[in-house]
Write a structure and sequence with these properties.
The chain is an alpha/beta fold. It is 45% helix and 16% strand. The protein contains ten helices and eight strands. It has helices at residues 5-11, 17-31, 53-65, 74-77, 82-101, 105-108, 124-142, 156-163, 177-183, 202-218; strands at residues 2-4, 36-38, 69-70, 147-152, 170-174, 189-193, 227-235, 244-252. Strands 6-5-4-7-8 form a five-stranded mixed β-sheet, with helices on both faces.
């Protein structure tokens, strides 16, 4: 979902734009939909190398409110300082993200568990996944885990984790390139494509977990002694007595 404040300001009185923006961001968070805030975020940087303090506050507040992405348009498309604009946007977003990731979310931004969709609005499978994802995010926070690993073929596991606003990175190993691209819009999700044509049965899932741990270690995301949370879901087969099985594992890396 994109909140384009320019178009929004044409449809409603300008003094209501900020309230609608906050309400729409919160609604998207609760639904688990990625949301982008756009239009004139650093407009003065089309002509100047530094943003105004009001623009800095605007960008930072959008991140604190729960936006998954903030967007530049004219600043980079036709502005005099496109690189400065990108650097400024990144710097502000990084600073705001640090406040959300610290245990300051009650004061500065949305709760890690802002998304609490009612069970009546979800299928039993989705409700179970939301509960497991919320538990994984809370477990990572309480155990000071380095990151969360999500093994996913449809993106559902990674989206459920993003919905609970994790305070640590979520590395999503995806078996589909289109899903990996889509997940880049979700806050805290870092997709890695692992092409495979094999069905994700128990043996393949175990192999993928080991490969995932090796990958994040090689990339320098984790070190010996770090705790990693792994979340995955496997659909049941005709010989099994369940529709799906969702796993939450706590791993301590050995040297």
């Amino acid at each position: 979902i994109m909140i384009a404040r320019g178009d929004l300001g044409v449809e409603i009185p300008f003094e209501q734009v900020f309230a609608y923006q906050k309400a729409m961001v919160r609604a998207c968070n609760e639904a688990g939909k990625p949301v982008i805030v756009a239009t004139q975020m650093l407009d003065s940087m089309s002509k100047n190398p530094r943003p105004t303090r009001a623009e800095v506050t605007d960008v930072g507040q959008a991140v604190l409110d729960g936006a998954d992405a903030v967007m530049l348009s004219g600043e980079t498309a036709a502005g005099k300082y496109p690189i400065h604009s990108v650097r400024a946007m990144r710097s502000i977003a990084k600073e705001a993200d640090a406040l959300v990731d610290a245990d300051l979310d009650d004061a500065y931004g949305p709760s890690r568990h802002v998304a609490r969709a009612s069970a009546s609005s979800l299928s039993s499978g989705d409700a179970s996944l939301d509960v497991i994802a919320s538990s994984a995010v809370e477990t990572a926070f309480r155990l000071d885990a380095r990151l969360i690993l999500a093994l996913t073929s449809t993106g559902a596991v990674a989206r459920a984790l993003a919905k609970s606003r994790p305070s640590v990175p979520v590395v999503a190993l995806c078996t589909d390139a289109a899903i990996a691209r889509q997940l880049q819009f979700h806050r805290a999700i870092h997709p890695i494509l692992v092409p495979t044509s094999d069905a994700l049965d128990s043996a393949k899932m175990t192999e993928l977990r080991a490969e995932a741990l090796r990958t994040v270690a090689e990339l320098g995301w984790v070190a010996p002694g770090d705790k990693v949370i792994i979340v995955d879901r496997k659909q049941g087969t005709s010989t099994e007595k369940h529709q799906s099985r969702t796993n939450l594992l706590v791993i301590t890396l050995s040297s």
